[in-house]
Amino acid sequence: MRHIIPETLEEALHVIAQGPTIKLAGGTDIMVKHRASQGLAAKLRQDVVYLLNVPDLHYIRKEDNGLRIGGMVPIETLLHHDDVPKILRDTLLDFASPGLRYVATLAGNIANASPAGDALVTLYALDALVRLKSLERTRDVPIEAVIVGPSQTTIQDDELIESVFLPDASFTHTEWRKVGTRRADAISKVAFTGCVTLDNDIVQDIRLAFGAVFKTVYRNRSLEKALIGQHRHDVVKQSDALCEKYLENIAPIDDQRSNASYRNTVTKNLLKAFIEKLS
Amino acid sequence: MKNISDSIPKVDAHEKLSGSAKYVSDYMLEDMHYAKTVRSPHAKAKIKAIHIPTLKPGVHVFGAKDIPAKNHVNMIFDDWPVFAEETVNHVGEPVLLVVAPDRKLLKETVDAIQVEYDPLTPEFSLKAFAVHKAFKKGDAEKAFSEADEIIEETYETGYQEQAYIEPQGFIGTYEDGKTTLIGSIQCPYYVKNALLVTLGCAENEVQVIQAEVGGAFGGKEEFPSLMACQLAIAVRTLKKPIKMIYEREEDMAVTTKRHPSKTRMRAAIKDGRVQAIEAHVSLDAGAYTGLSGVVLSRAMLAVSSAYTIPNLDVSGHAYITNTVPNGAFRGFGAPQMIFAIEMFMHHIGKALGDDPYHFRRKHLVKQGDLTATAGIYRDPILMDKMIDKATAMADYHKKVHAYNAPDVYRGIGMSWFLHGCGFTGSGEAEHIKSKVRLRKDEANRVHILVAAVDMGQGAKTTLRKVVAHVLKLPLDQVIFDNPDTDRVPDSGPTVASRTAMIVGGLLARAAEKLKTSWEDGVAYTVEEQYKQPDYIKWDEDTMQGDAYPAYSWGVNIVEVAVDPVTYQVDVIGIWSVYDVGKALDERIIMGQADGGQAQGVAYGYLEVMAHKQGVLQHKNMTDYIIPTSVDMAPTENVVIDNPYAFGPYGAKGAGELSLVGGAPAVAQAIEQAIGKKICKIPATPEHIEELMRRESH
């Protein structure tokens, strides 16, 4: 097993093209996952490629129609960057603990593919496009096509997350709610991002994303689409029915942090509270 | 003379903050080996066979057959094996100890050992008891037969994990026929006595030294004796230094926790007053009894807490289940019972249509009243003043009224409580017989020779202050090194809120002795031994008389907001007033207050631990949730003077007091905020959701 510290993106792509590797960003999940017992080195069974300090992956750039964030930008940097959408900054403020935020990255959060990953909930709501790069190709993939299950992604061995693109969007109202096991430094039991755009009381855009209640972050575009074009009061009237539809589709579990009943009820309450704000 | 309560910098603050303090894992010795335990994966099983692979050079395996004398950990009940012999009775029970020259080889050997088991049916419900106790006061039966009304409730509490920063650990060394254990411990002599029993050796063949302790909370009271016995067997055989440090997961999975409890309470009401309470408390002891009998006693003795109830019928059982043994934890049974009685009195007040505050207050203990066990509250009780002070600080009366309005989702709760200082009953006089020494050297420095451990609570600072104050010496002339059983007498374990009051009291007396006999430049030693005040009478069999030599008192007020969308509890404020006799150092007492309240309030609403088929589901500090600074509310704490004649400068116990009232205060606050009765803690968002759902259907 080798430890490889590439200095450029180009070099990194060459390394990962040679076979399966562990791509290490901040390491805040990988080092926990591969922890060995006391006094022994981490149980890393493949070559490890250290990407966190590759300068090419450290940028935040405004592009036509959106913002592009280099894969290795630490969460803490995003938290203080004015171009980062407010809803994402609200989310990242609840992300892990201050220490972890200095090394954790969006790319790491995506690749870890936890249903309870806080940043993911808002990235889903923002229609984030993940740029996957290999020596051969570059593809921009919607986040829900990258993450397919807990710890499961469609990222190929020879690809890395070069950047995340957030298409421009302006909302009338946004809301982030993290329901953690405590008020800080906690894993979410339920998380919610809601964004809505109104024009003359008519819904132009609505996005509802839920964390920790399904095998991935849960977003239902057809349910959202059905609300577009409706008067806000009409949407409020449907809130109970809408909640029921979401409850039919999500699949929360019982675990050491919470239980399915609580997760269902809180999902419903969060959605209802968000919708009722339109009244 | 300066007031002893005036704060000084904690004497160990610099070494702890700078990192120079030496914890057990910091010891690196030549030719040091490592040890790790092979544990049962079954909650109950018969051991069929043990297959040990061919061991690499330097690797050794020890088990029950290697124990020179008794295969039990010396405690009050001798049912806890050092190594499982024929059966295992809980998941994680130690079967073997592997020793290897390096950690890689150690891990490989542990993984390669195969133990064959015949699984048996485990018991997880409270069916078979190991300890039963009961006592009565007055004539409860008569009071029930004459009652206007009888009210009954059942209260439940969960596990609580000590969550000390530093996991358990020891290093053992061998030299000239002597086995020395250096560890993260609260009770050097408990460890030494356990070694003598298990090894069957002479006093001078074992020595126990306390390393710096990174928190204990009772978790390092009895459990370290088990580790020490296992390690000592290996050290004596191999004659090499061996280190055994638990990882967090191992520590959480196998060390003792706070006993889950269920308490059924019945009250006989006549003329708007509680005339009698019948209480039965059930504790889940886990697989072995250990200290559960004494934990049960303390729970039962707290039955009427800060109230005087004329007639009582109290009983309790400690049940054996196939789960990890439970044991000592700050409060030692009292938090379970004080939760039950405080909620019960509050609930009775409500049920009678009375204002619970007034209802409770008219039952409050007064000086001269009889305790639950018909002892006498001899010393002044300042609870009236303390309650008035606390309610004013918190603006309690205004808030409690305002929060009765529907849909505000705010609540305020208040608990009143006492904590018996020192060992229960005649334990101090008959079992501990605490002995302290002061050695004066030729340079006129005075060395404190006691077995008391500073585990963060400040014993090194306060005990040095007491001695320096009596002798009018500068603090640096008074030396207090970590206890070493070859050097210090047995002043008893560092438990039961006894160190400041009992050990400190003896040291103050020894210092007086030294002062009157003081000879400059001459080295000599003075000694003091505990004598129970003559008026204290206790009958262990009937549980009658003075259960404790003195009581500390407290009032906690907790305010919360509950989010009606997520049922999350936000603790907004905590206000407290304590009577610990006299603060030996104001800042240390404030530290005890803040820390104890955080632990006590979190016990009531935040800290969740549960097992599934005997396997604890909360395995590490990510799963087991303790409050962060963001979860903790601003606190306002006041300590009032009420000096106790036998404590140094009037000091009583302070270590456990600040924990025991937290849970009922926060539970009452949540109860008000959500308008549902709470009879079970922790009152988590999941539990609140269930309460809201159950009653809205």
Features:
heterodimer, A: 279 residues, alpha+beta, five-stranded antiparallel β-sheet, four-stranded antiparallel β-sheet, 12 helices, globular, B: 697 residues, Aldehyde Oxidoreductase, domain 3, Aldehyde Oxidoreductase, domain 4, 3 domains, seven-stranded mixed β-sheet, 27 strands, 28% helix
Topology:
The complex is a heterodimer of chains A (279) and B (697).
Chain A: E1 3-4, H1 9-17, E2 22-24, H2 30-33, E3 48-50, E4 60-63, E5 66-70, H3 75-79, H4 86-92, H5 98-101, H6 106-112, H7 118-125, E6 129-133, E7 138-142, H8 143-146, E8 147-149, E9 152-153, E10 160-167, E11 173-180, E12 188-199, E13 202-211, E14 218-219, H9 221-227, H10 232-237, H11 239-249, H12 260-276
Parallel strand pairs in A: 1-3, 2-3
Antiparallel strand pairs in A: 4-5, 5-10, 6-7, 6-10, 8-9, 11-12, 12-13, 13-14
Helix pairs in contact in A: 4-7, 11-12
Chain B: H1 13-18, E1 33-39, E2 45-51, E3 60-63, E4 87-88, E5 94-100, H2 103-112, E6 114-119, E7 128-137, H3 140-145, E8 149-157, E9 169-175, E10 178-183, H4 188-199, E11 206-210, H5 223-238, E12 242-245, H6 248-254, E13 261-270, E14 273-286, H7 292-301, E15 311-320, H8 334-351, H9 356-361, H10 383-394, H11 396-402, E16 410-421, H12 427-432, E17 435-440, E18 446-449, H13 459-471, E19 478-479, H14 499-517, E20 524-529, E21 538-539, E22 544-545, E23 550-562, E24 569-579, H15 586-605, E25 611-612, E26 615-616, E27 635-640, H16 657-660, H17 662-674, H18 685-696
Parallel strand pairs in B: 1-12, 10-11, 14-15, 18-19, 24-27
Antiparallel strand pairs in B: 1-5, 2-4, 2-6, 3-5, 7-15, 8-13, 9-10, 9-12, 13-14, 16-23, 17-18, 17-20, 21-22, 23-24, 25-26
